[in-house]
Amino acid sequence: MSDTQAHVPGRIMAAEMAEQPAVLRRILDEGAPKIREIAAEIAARNPRFVLLTARGTSDNAALYAKYLIEVLLGKPAGLTSMSTTTAYGAKPDLTDCLVITVSQSGGSPDLVASTKAARDAGAITLAVTNNPASPLAEVSEFHIDVLAGPEKALPATKTYTAELLALYLFVEGLRGGDGAAAKDLPELAAGVLARQAEVRALAERYRFAQRLVITSRGYGYPTAREAALKLMETTYIPASPFSGADLLHGPLAMVDNVSPVIAIVPDGKGGEALQPVLDRLRGRGADLVVIGQREQVDAASAGFALPAGVPEEVQAILEILPLQLLAYEVTIARGQDPDAPRALAKVTETH
């Protein structure tokens, strides 16, 4: 490889986005048996509730798992505040609690410390990482490897979708399911990623944007948060993610007839719950771009139609793909390098 090729802006991120169908296939073919085995062992211990611990992109994957656990298992689930144990020294009683820590690197000191504290407090601990040799994997009772392979671009792409699929298969395993809803995802993901030219055309809308609002509901809400994070860390455009319900409780006032809004509209109950929000946004004349089904896209200013017939609980794995591409394309259009956003490091060592 020449020096010129090595320094093409966005080359690494583009390659890692393109790997996602293969990563999803690897998880289904190689990772699923181990995930089912771990899930069965934990299910036999019947944890009464679940706590999820993560930072950054992995925090959005953890939020997705929270929806899965509450909807599919009917168990209460929450996102932890790590500082309660790492900074304040709180000692909660976590007997019969499952604590799932999600981390691409498994190296952040506060994740390791809070997981160790949870295990000392009686919790069943599970680490979900892309590094089975990480400190986090070592301090956890159980570990799931998301099998994404080395990720070199600073914006996480393939590790995020790998975390989503691994978490879905794990929750399915807890209830004795076979994860059949995920079987077509590798091929569907390849089809979505092949439509990059459509996303490049959408990106022109945001080349000079000063801010963005991104909204969704249900399983799509973690996608809204992850899309906002990707756009902010690559393009530097302030992007505010809102649950559709929260958007109606005040922030809608900042949306006017020139405000760019991206709505992720799941095909199912989440999309139905978002419909009143879409109606209000159209009523305010917002520049509304929809990521969803064809009929929703056609009713908006523009958008990207997702494959039909995908079960709602796994749609998030496809929804984020055009938004990753959008972050990439807008960044390139603005003359920046998405491989190396300013002031970011691959492993963020929070304490």
UniProtKB/TrEMBL annotation:
InterPro entries: GlmS/AgaS_SIS, GlmS/FrlB_SIS, SIS_dom, SIS_dom_sf. Pfam families: SIS. Transmembrane segments: none annotated. Residues 38-180, 202-341 form the SIS domain. Keywords: Hydrolase, Repeat. Its EC number is 3.5.-.-. One of its GO terms (molecular function) is hydrolase activity. It is an enzyme of class 3 (hydrolase). One of its GO terms (biological process) is carbohydrate derivative metabolic process. This is SIS domain-containing protein. It comes from Kitasatospora camelliae.
